[in-house]
Specification:
This protein is an alpha+beta fold and about 180 residues long. The protein has helices at about 10-15, 35-40, 45-50, 80-90, and strands at about 20, 25-30, 55, 65-70, 75-80, 110-115, 125, 135, 140-145, 150, 165-170, 170-175. Strand 8 and strand 9 (about 140-145) form a beta hairpin. The structure holds FE2/S2 (inorganic) cluster (FES).
Length: about 180
C-alpha cells in the first residue's frame, strides 16, 4: 500500500534490476524495453549529450546487460559469461550473414559494447532473447548473437560497435 514502506522515494535498487548513474545521464538494465522510460526520465539528456560518455561498469554483474544513452542512441554494454564468450568465439564465419570474428568486435572478451539499434529498420532489440540468446528485434524478427552479430531475420548487418576506450578496468568512455 502506498506510504507503507519506510524506504526513501529514491531507491533505485528496488525499481530496476540494475540502475546506474553515469556522467551523461542514466543507465538501465535489460535492454530495449526500458529505454523509452529512461528517455522520458531524462528529457534534457539530449541537450547534455556530449561527444563522449563515461560509464562505470564496475557494478554490472556477469551475465547482465545495461543500456546507456550516447549521442541520443542506446548503447548496450554486456558483461559476458565464460560460456557466452566461448560460444561467440566458436562460431564459424561461414555461418554469419555479416562475417566478423568475435575478437574483432570486443576489446576485452567479457565486455561487448554495441549500438542498440537494429540494422534493419532501426528498432531497439531486446536482450537475451531470440534463438541465439543475444538480442531479438520484435519488429520483423531479427536475431543477434552474444557478439551482436546478425544470425537470422531481415537485418543485413551486425549491431554496430561504437568507438570506445577503457579508461580503467571499471570505466569505459564511449565516443
Ligand atoms: S527493425 Fe529490427 S527486424 Fe526490422
Amino acid at each position: 500500500m502506498k506510504g507503507d514502506h519506510s524506504s526513501t522515494p529514491h531507491n533505485p535498487s528496488r525499481r530496476d534490476i540494475l540502475t546506474l548513474a553515469t556522467s551523461a545521464g542514466a543507465v538501465t538494465a535489460v535492454g530495449g524495453v526500458a529505454w523509452p522510460l529512461i528517455a522520458q526520465m531524462n528529457p534534457d539528456a539530449s541537450a547534455r549529450a556530449l561527444a563522449s560518455t563515461e560509464v562505470d561498469i564496475s557494478t554490472v554483474p556477469e551475465g547482465q546487460i545495461i543500456t546507456v544513452k550516447w549521442r541520443g542512441k542506446p548503447v548496450f554494454i554486456r558483461h559476458r559469461t565464460e560460456k557466452e564468450i566461448k560460444d561467440a568465439q566458436a562460431v564459424s564465419l561461414t555461418e554469419l550473414p555479416d562475417p566478423e570474428p568475435d575478437d574483432k568486435r570486443v576489446q576485452k572478451p567479457q565486455w561487448l559494447v554495441v549500438i542498440g539499434i537494429c540494422t534493419h529498420l532501426g528498432c531497439i532489440p531486446t536482450g537475451k532473447e531470440g534463438e541465439y540468446d543475444g538480442w531479438f528485434c520484435p519488429c520483423h524478427g531479427s536475431s543477434y548473437d552474444v557478439s551482436g552479430r546478425i544470425r537470422q531475420g531481415p537485418a543485413p548487418n551486425n549491431l554496430e560497435v561504437p568507438n570506445y576506450t577503457f579508461v580503467s578496468d571499471t570505466k569505459i568512455k564511449i565516443g
